[in-house]
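Is it possible to get an amino acid sequence alongside its tokenized fold?
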Amino acid sequence: GNEALRGRGRVRRAAGSPGSGSFLGAGAARALLLGGRRRPRRRMLRLGAERGCGLLLRGLGAEQLGAQSRGLGLSLSRGTVVVERWWKVPLSKEGRPPRLHPRRHRVYRLVEDTKNQPKGELELILTQSVDNLGSRGDIVSVKKSLARNKLLLEGLAVYASPENKKMFEEEMKLRDEGKLERLQTQSGEKTVQFLRSCHLEVGMKNNVKWELNNEIVTRHFLKNLKVFVMPHAVKLPDEPITRWGEYWCEVTVNGMDTVRVPMSVVNFMRPKTKRYKYWLAQQAAQAALKG
């Protein structure tokens, strides 16, 4: 028993005193001395790793939530870019991958870029008359912004789908057959608006007897107002017009809209020739020199 106790004390002295002959290595002795500190270090490393991963995942979750909260207007516009190699890759043997040059075969040439291409137009069918576009049933091609922000939004047009085209074709057939009321064309509407703001002047000679008729009025429409009117579309007062004065005439556009145009019948004056205008200019120049 005493020998066993002496052996234990010898081991303790060897472990406790650095000067004694050590039965254990320096690392083992340091582990025995600092054995109580190793576990906290590992635990701190594990906690730090867990905390770092948690912060990383939390940041990713915040980014995803921020991306979801953003509207569609801030989303990236997508497009397709088609490229091709500037240098062709040589054919390889059967069963072997192609041999690519590290620099030459990485040079590409742009073929098509759908993102930066000019935006195409949208085809619509007008449901109402629109200025500078057309009337009901006309198929027009307009910019997508105009179509979506005005025409489609206000109900002035619909998409030119096969169903809508067929529906408007049937409607046009019914109008041509007289089963539906006819609609004024866009040029007809512009003509009506122009005639409402016009005043016609008809010049008649004073040395002969005359009576105003439809043919004379239509010639003056074309000469003075640059408007071509058929004689059967003009209506004059029931009383014959044989004197100068203020009168009126009615013009029917496309057999639908009738406009009353004020008309003045005046004495006809021959247009002055260039020679007469040149003589007047000379007289004015001489008078200015004398003055």
